[in-house]
């Protein structure tokens, strides 16, 4: 199955009088279960593409199909529901609620997706251990955690509803090299075990290297910074 299919996609920032950046994305297909590392310089459109894929931004032109669903055919509420049920997003700033505990942040994501997790406590425990988080972390407020821990909590939240597609924005990597390696290895293990399609966005060359080490059929994609944007595919 095709997870992602983009055709003639154009997004323009700003209004007609004050024209901002115009971003074009070439036709692009990602197969279900594939993990892709998407890189490119700052300003090349990585965050924009993730926002288009998650339905947060609507393109001016072109088509985005996710698992056969044309996003523009969905109403706003259908699109929100589609996102909650099928897509896990890890934002650059994590978007966790700082004063709530780790457990409450996760429970909120499950509640919003209206998914009836059979045994939520058991799944959370599995993630805590798989992500090498301390077992007493669940009752701590997110604001008391380190950046690396917050990132793993954001991953846990993105995975808790078993999304078919995971979008990770790691544009500003806050991790040291040892943490990067561990992070990538754990992430890939979970993705491969669940056959999750993943788009991992970063301009970090160390992360790119670890990605190829941990992904048997690694696929890379570069966004170039031009008046026109191209998705250059480079299969490893
Ligand atoms: P990165 O390169 O790490 O993705 P940026 O600094 O390019 O981060 O962008 C950070 C945020 O600022 C993004 O959410 C983006 O949408 C927003 N942004 C970037 N450029 C502009 C701009 N010219 N005007 C308004 N917002 C912008
Ligand atoms: P990246 O994530 O690769 O750094 P972005 O998607 O953040 O790139 O930005 C791509 C281009 O779009 C840049 O030229 C940026 O300045 C512009 N841009 C991003 N967000 C906004 C925004 N909210 N308003 C206006 N321009 C924006």
β content, as a range?
Answer: 25-35%
Q: Ligands in the structure?
A: adenosine-5'-diphosphate
Topology pattern, helix = H, strand = E: EEEEHEEHEHHHEHEHEE
Low-confidence stretches: none
Report the structural category: alpha/beta
Please give the structural blueprint.
Blueprint: E1 2-14, E2 19-25, E3 28-31, E4 35-39, H1 46-53, E5 61-66, E6 69-70, H2 76-86, E7 87-90, H3 102-112, H4 120-130, H5 147-159, E8 165-169, H6 177-194, E9 197-201, H7 205-214, E10 219-223, E11 231-235
The site of one adenosine-5'-diphosphate (ADP) has 14 residues, from strand 1, strand 2 and helix 1.
Detailed description of the structure:
The structure is a single chain. By secondary structure, the chain is α/β, with parallel strands linked by helices. It contains 7 helices and 11 strands. A 6-stranded mixed sheet has the order 7-8-9-4-10-11, with helices on both faces. Strands 1, 2, 3, 5 and 6 form a 5-stranded antiparallel sheet that branches. A hairpin with a 2-residue loop joins strand 5 and strand 6. The mean pLDDT is 85. It binds adenosine-5'-diphosphate (ADP) (2 copies). One adenosine-5'-diphosphate binds at residues 13-14, 20-21, 23, 40, 42-48, 171.
């Amino acid at each position: 199955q095709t997870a992602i299919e983009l055709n003639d996609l154009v997004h323009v920032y700003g209004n007609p009088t004050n024209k901002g950046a115009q971003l074009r994305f070439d036709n692009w297909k990602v197969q279900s279960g594939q993990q892709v590392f998407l890189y490119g310089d700052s300003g090349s459109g990585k965050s924009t593409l993730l926002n288009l894929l998650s339905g947060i931004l609507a393109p001016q032109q072109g088509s985005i199909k996710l698992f056969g669903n044309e996003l523009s055919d969905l109403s706003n509420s259908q699109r929100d529901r589609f996102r909650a049920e099928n897509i896990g997003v890890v934002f650059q700033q994590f978007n966790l609620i700082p004063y709530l505990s780790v457990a409450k942040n996760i429970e909120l994501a499950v509640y919003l997706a209206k998914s009836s997790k059979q045994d939520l406590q058991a799944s959370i425990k599995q993630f805590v251990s798989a992500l090498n988080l301390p077992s007493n972390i669940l009752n701590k407020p997110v604001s008391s955690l380190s950046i690396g821990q917050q990132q793993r909590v954001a991953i846990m939240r993105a995975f808790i509803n078993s999304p078919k597609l995971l979008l990770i924005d790691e544009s500003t990597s806050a991790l040291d090299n040892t943490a990067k390696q561990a992070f990538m290895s754990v992430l890939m293990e979970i993705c491969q075990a669940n056959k999750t399609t993943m788009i991992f966005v970063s301009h970090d060359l160390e992360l790119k290297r670890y990605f190829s080490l941990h992904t048997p059929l690694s696929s890379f994609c570069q966004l170039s910074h031009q008046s026109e944007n191209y998705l250059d595919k480079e299969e490893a």
